[in-house]
Structures are given as C-alpha cells and as structure tokens.
TrEMBL record:
<dbReference type="InterPro" id="IPR001509">
    <property type="entry name" value="Epimerase_deHydtase"/>
</dbReference>
<feature type="domain" description="NAD-dependent epimerase/dehydratase">
    <location>
        <begin position="18"/>
        <end position="163"/>
    </location>
</feature>
<protein>
    <submittedName>
        <fullName>NAD-dependent epimerase/dehydratase family protein</fullName>
    </submittedName>
</protein>
<dbReference type="InterPro" id="IPR036291">
    <property type="entry name" value="NAD(P)-bd_dom_sf"/>
</dbReference>
<dbReference type="Pfam" id="PF01370">
    <property type="entry name" value="Epimerase"/>
</dbReference>
Amino acid sequence: MVIGNGLVAHGFEMYQNNDQVVVFASGVSNSNNTDRAAFDRETDLLNDTLSGLQTQLVIYISTCSIYDPSMQASLYVHHKLAMEKLVADKADNYYIFRVPNLAGHTSNPHTTLNFLFNHIVQGIPFHIWKNASRNIIDIEDAVRICNHFISSDKNTGRIINIANQFNYPVVEIVEKIERATGRKGIYTVIDKGNTPVIDITEISPVINKLGINFAGNYLDNIIQKYLVPHDL
C-alpha cells in the first residue's frame, strides 16, 4: 500500500498492491511551509494509518533537512522528527528513510531544481546563498536503495539516510542549469548558507552493489533527464 500521490508516492508505486508493506509518502512537501494545519493533517493521517496496522512493514519517508543547520529550528524539521517518533512508538516493524532533495518528474515548484529552473527560464529574480550546498539524488536511485533494505534486510526498526555522497554548491547548480538551458538567471549572491553533513556509511555498500555512480556528470544527467525536456 502506498499513501500519497506526489513524487515519492509515484516512486514507490510498485508497493501499491502489496498488503505487507505500507509506504507513507503523504505529507508536507514544502520545507518552508509554516501552515500548522498542513502539518496537523499529516499527523492525523499517520496516526490513522498506524492505528490500522497488523503485521505490515511501515516505510516512513522523512528528511535529511534535519542535518541542515539553517533548517534545524524550522517547523518542518520539528514536525518530521515528531513523525519519526510516532512511527517508532507505534509500529513494531518499520524503516524510516531520511531523503535529501529528490529529483524527478514533478510539478512541485518548491523542489530545489524546479525552483531554480523556473526562476532562470522565466527570468524571475532570486537570491543565491553563496555558501549553501544541497544534496540531490534521483528519485529512481533513492527508491532502488530503499528497496534493497525493504526486500533484503530484515534488521528493521532503523533510521537510514538515503542520500548522494556529494553535496552541490547552489552556485554550481545554477550554473549547470544555465548551461543546459542556454538561459542566464537574474540573481543576487548573498554571503550566507551552509552545507548539510549527511552520514551515508550504512548505504555505501548498497550503492556499490547497485552500481550507482554519484561522481562525474551525475547532476548534469539529472538536469538533462528531468528539466531540459520541459518547454522553455
């Protein structure tokens, strides 16, 4: 069973008719959201889902924003930590997967890549934090790594970081989108920002086993795959 209808839910659609796995991928998708009602709706839905459990494996999709110093005081991060605790307290059999910025086919304007792409190609002025970096992973790679644990690993009841081994400076991401689209963004660089430190030691053997290569042109390939085909 998959609960949700966004990018993550579609990524895990192979579990839609699986009665033994419950993927909870419904919730607030904008990390800058401050609408408490939106967070309350996710809390209520997660409580209802957990209350109806029998022996199913619960998959909760959380966030690596927890490791971003600029986000740690946010309502979004506090909410995600509370949801993780709810899962740990109420589910006997679960995985909590913390994911970073996901790249995929989505109309959500708040994802890092969509935000930058839309502002660049539409000529909308925006700010860049000079010292900020973002961790970006293809949704397909994230799901493949998660699937390894769901199908092959029986040591449940854990929180696992599912992330790229590299962080990308936002300035670099902007430059790559500009080159790929042939458009020049209108932006102001501000001397702010930081880099999240995400420990992926636990998934490193899985990355190697699956043959996922984050080096080289990984980000360029993502931009070509998910952004450039759009109408400019």
